[in-house]
């Protein structure tokens, strides 16, 4: 396939990433690649790593992909999504089995939750059964540590009040002594460090017990390889070798959906591992009871150990993460005002926070500009816009009343006492600054007042902020409370 087609696919793929989100894109769209194009029929083949992936993408995104290709390449009249016709790099994997004194292999992928072995081309897995080869030779010799990213450790995991439970539970699971609770279920929203902790557990346990056999995978990849093994009549090998590991780390368990047979096998795997005294850690963005389409027996197994709930990083933890990340760069002058700005405004998840800082520093270094607050606001506008929390007028009124120690009803009352009027005017000002509501809409939320009353309040508070330091301080405090 010519480079031009690859460039078009890269652009189409990146466009889908914005619509689908990074997680789905990384698991299903990014591994695909354009194949043959028939000029007679106008049909372009798009290859997926396996039949399972091809069917999944075809069911959900075929129309969207077809339209995108027709826009990029008018000669494309139809799209055919199928598994890659060849088993890429299988012979290379088999040739490497003898490397090292014990024949063990170790793959450090750095791809987090993108699949069983991170980047499939790097680790040499195509989703067509090469997974079974990686477990060992005909004598049953097992690879030592599969799928682990050696750069993700407890040492570089920044801990705060929001994630201390998950961190401590993870360290207990990685310790030499038998854990008190098993399995360990790490629950946290997207981008809050679940994947980092999974790899940290595996890396620490590998140091504690070098002979231990450790396997990191995603739930999707487990499903893909299960189906592949079933189609190749290799289920006995799949079961025996999977259950031969001493520690199993499964990411994004919320995607263990679909065929009952896949869930059944995963259930039996859990029972076999726990029954043999082995260690199991799973991670998800929701509690076990909130998993959709999952067998109740499987939910029971996942809930029987410890569910460690990790909360979104608070502002103190976000500051600490930024400072820890900055320490990894060559000397780079980033002011406290920039750190504070990033910590306050990029609050959805840690991954975006670190990504924003990386982007800012890279831009500054490549252009020779200093890292200033103005540069951060300009270069990170897309991330900042996505993280801007929707603040309501009701929330503003409640916060202002708490601050000035007023009853909430005073926001809509007719009282003209200065102790009531001024806080009401501040609330109107904040409503105009922090929400997209018009003057008439704001007026209706304050007891049906006319829009001219709101305009007067906004202009008055703007003027007072310039002349009165106390008023400016009050407004700044309220803004921080509402935006944090």
Rg over CA atoms, rounded to whole Å, is 27 Å
Overall, the morphology is: globular
Which spans have pLDDT < 50 for at least 5 consecutive residues? Answer: 87-130, 134-143
> What is the level-2 CATH architecture name of the largest domain?
3-Layer(aba) Sandwich
Query: What is the name of the CATH superfamily of the largest domain?
Result: P-loop containing nucleotide triphosphate hydrolases
Termini Cα gap: 49 Å
DSSP, total strands: 9
Helix-strand makeup class: alpha/beta
Which CATH top level class of the largest domain fits? Alpha Beta
Beta-sheet strand percentage? Answer: 5-15%
How many domains make up the coordinates?
4
Mean pLDDT: 80
The main pleated sheet reads as: 6 strands, parallel
Strand order of the largest sheet: 4-6-7-8-5-9
Helix fraction bin: 40-55%
Look up the CATH topology of the largest domain.
Rossmann fold
Tally the helices: what do you get? Answer: 22
